[in-house]
Amino acid sequence: MANMWEVFHSYTRAVRDGSINPLMCPDCDYILAVRDQDGEPVLWCSTEDRYIRPGLDLRDKIKDLVNSAKRT
User: Fold this and answer.
1) CA-closest candidate to residue 53, choices 64, 63, 44, 62
2) Which residue, among 35, 65, 39, has the nearest Cα to 50 in the 3D structure?
3) pLDDT at res. 2
4) Are 4 and 10 in contact (CB under 8 A)?
């Protein structure tokens, strides 16, 4: 399994270059930013100042987004 930081960095680069759409906050639909919390990557909603610690499903979704960006 790839280091999750590598996956999140790849996700951030793919969003920045327009290869994929960013993940949105489920409550306010604002773009989630990648942040560090206790050495692990988390998603942060700046509007609500709320951290989302990705579970297995969200990590898999991010991996799928990164893989789809690599295929294009």
Assistant:
1) 44
2) 35
3) 57
4) no
> In whole angstroms, what is the distance from residue 57 CA to residue 13 CA?
21
Q: What is this structure's pTM?
A: 0.88
Q: In which residue ranges of the chain is pLDDT below 50?
A: 1
Exposed, middle or buried, 18 (CB in 10 Å: 0-12/13-18/19+)? Answer: exposed
If we measure between CA atoms, which residue out of 69, 37, 42, 71 comes closest to residue 55? 42
Q: In the block, which residue shows the tokens 């327009």?
A: 18
Check if the beta carbon of residue 59 is closer than 8 Å to that of residue 7: yes
> Could you give the count of Cα atoms lying within 13 Å of 24 in the half-sphere of its Cβ?
6
CA–CA distance, 68 with 50 (Å, rounded to integer): 27
